[in-house]
C-alpha cells in the first residue's frame, strides 16, 4: 500500500480486551498490518464494566505476536489538538498510515429531556469532531497508491433514550461517507459499519435476552463479527465497496 514493508492502520478505541477495537486490531495484525492503537483509560474507568489498568498493554502484547512493530498510544480525543499530535507520533515512529479505523466512542445514556449541554457537547466532541479531525489528518497525510487507502468507522442507530450518542454517531456517519467522495483523487475508500447490539460487557440480562430474541440467528453479536467485516473492507478484495453504511447486525429487528 505505502512504501512500508507492511501496511499501517491507526485503530482508535482499543482499551478493552472484549471491545470491538481490540478484535479489529488483532484481526488486521493477523492479516499482515502493523497497527497503531489508541485508548483512553479515564473513559473506560468511568463506565460500569470491569477493566484492568494493564489491559491496553496486554492487548498490544497479543498484537505484537503478529505485528511486532505495533504501538499503543493513550489519546484524549476530546482535545481538538490530539488528532494532529497522534498522527505526528505515528508517522515519526512507523511512517504514514494506509488505514484509519474509528472504533472509539463516548456513550452515556440520556434522553431528550435529561441530556445536559455538557453531555451533548462532550458526545459531539468525541464521536463527531474527533472523527472529522482524524479523517482530515488521514486525508492530508495519505501517501499510498491510488485505491489502497481505507477508512472504516463504527456507528449505531440508537437514538431514543440515548440521544447524544445516537445524534453524534449520525453526524460521524456523514463525515466518513463524505470522505468517500472528497478523497476520490487519493483513492481512499470510506465506509461505515453498524454492528448492532454487540456483547462487549455493557449489556445486562434483559438487553441480552431481547437481542437474542430479536435476531434471526438467535445469538448476540460479537466483537469478532464486526472485525471480520472490517478486515475484508481493508483487504484488496474489499476495495470496490465504498461510501456505504453497512448493516452487519445479524438481521436484528
Question: Could you characterize the architecture of this molecule?
Answer:
The protein has a single domain, classed as NAD(P)-binding Rossmann-like Domain (Rossmann fold). The protein is built from 8 helices and 7 strands; from the N terminus they run βαβααβαβαβαβααβ. It has helices at 20-30, 41-46, 55-63, 82-93, 117-141, 163-182, 205-214, 223-233, and strands at residues 8-11, 34-39, 71-74, 99-102, 149-154, 188-194, 245-247. It has a 7-stranded parallel sheet with strand order 3-2-1-4-5-6-7, sandwiched between helices. Strand 1, helix 1 and strand 2 form a beta-alpha-beta unit.
Characteristic key phrases:
single chain; 253 residues; 8 helices; 7 strands
Short account of what is shown:
The protein has 253 residues and is an alpha/beta fold. The chain has helices spanning 20-30, 41-46, 55-63, 82-93, 117-141, 163-182, 205-214, 223-233; strands at 8-11, 34-39, 71-74, 99-102, 149-154, 188-194, 245-247. Helix 1 crosses helix 8.
Please specify the SSE layout and strand pairing.
Elements: E1 8-11, H1 20-30, E2 34-39, H2 41-46, H3 55-63, E3 71-74, H4 82-93, E4 99-102, H5 117-141, E5 149-154, H6 163-182, E6 188-194, H7 205-214, H8 223-233, E7 245-247
Parallel strand pairs: 1-2, 1-4, 2-3, 4-5, 5-6, 6-7
Helix pairs in contact: 1-8, 4-5, 5-6
Number of distinct beta strands: 7
| SSE order | EHEHHEHEHEHEHHE
| Model regions low in confidence, pLDDT < 50 over at least 5 residues | none
Structural class: alpha/beta
Task: Specify the helix fraction band.
Answer: 40-55%
Lateral strand order in the biggest sheet: 3-2-1-4-5-6-7
* CATH class division: Alpha Beta
Assigned CATH architecture: 3-Layer(aba) Sandwich
| Main sheet properties | 7 strands, parallel
**In the CATH hierarchy, what is the superfamily?**
NAD(P)-binding Rossmann-like Domain
User: What is the 3D form?
Assistant: globular
| Domain unit count | 1
Distance between the termini: 39 Å
Fold-level CATH name: Rossmann fold
Round the Cα radius of gyration to an integer and report it.
17 Å
Taken as a percent bin, the fraction of beta residues is 5-15%
Q: How large is the count of helical segments?
A: 8
Q: Mean pLDDT, nearest integer?
A: 93
Amino acid at each position: 500500500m505505502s512504501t512500508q514493508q507492511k501496511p499501517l492502520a491507526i485503530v482508535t478505541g482499543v482499551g478493552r480486551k472484549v471491545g470491538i477495537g481490540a478484535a479489529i486490531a488483532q484481526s488486521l495484525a493477523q492479516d499482515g498490518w502493523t497497527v497503531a492503537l489508541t485508548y483512553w483509560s479515564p473513559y473506560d474507568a468511568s463506565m460500569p464494566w470491569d477493566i484492568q489498568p494493564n489491559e491496553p498493554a496486554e492487548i498490544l502484547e497479543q498484537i505484537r505476536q503478529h505485528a511486532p512493530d505495533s504501538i499503543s498510544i493513550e489519546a484524549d480525543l476530546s482535545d481538538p489538538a490530539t488528532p494532529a499530535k497522534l498522527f505526528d507520533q505515528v508517522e515519526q515512529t512507523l511512517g504514514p498510515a494506509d488505514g484509519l479505523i474509528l472504533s472509539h466512542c463516548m456513550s452515556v445514556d440520556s434522553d431528550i429531556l435529561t441530556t445536559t449541554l455538557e453531555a451533548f457537547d462532550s458526545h459531539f466532541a468525541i464521536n463527531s469532531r474527533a472523527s472529522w479531525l482524524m479523517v482530515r489528518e488521514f486525508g492530508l497525510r495519505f501517501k499510498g497508491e491510488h485505491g489502497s487507502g481505507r477508512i472504516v468507522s463504527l456507528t449505531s442507530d440508537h437514538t431514543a433514550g440515548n440521544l447524544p450518542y445516537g445524534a453524534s454517531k449520525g453526524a460521524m456517519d456523514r463525515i466518513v461517507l463524505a470522505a468517500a467522495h472528497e478523497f476520490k483523487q487519493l483513492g481512499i475508500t470510506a465506509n461505515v459499519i453498524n454492528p448492532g447490539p454487540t456483547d462487549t460487557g455493557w449489556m445486562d440480562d434483559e438487553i441480552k435476552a431481547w437481542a437474542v430474541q430479536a435476531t434471526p440467528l438467535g445469538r448476540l453479536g460479537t466483537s469478532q463479527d464486526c472485525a471480520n467485516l472490517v478486515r475484508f473492507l481493508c483487504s484488496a478484495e474489499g476495495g470496490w465497496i465504498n461510501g456505504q453504511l453497512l448493516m452487519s447486525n445479524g438481521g436484528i429487528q
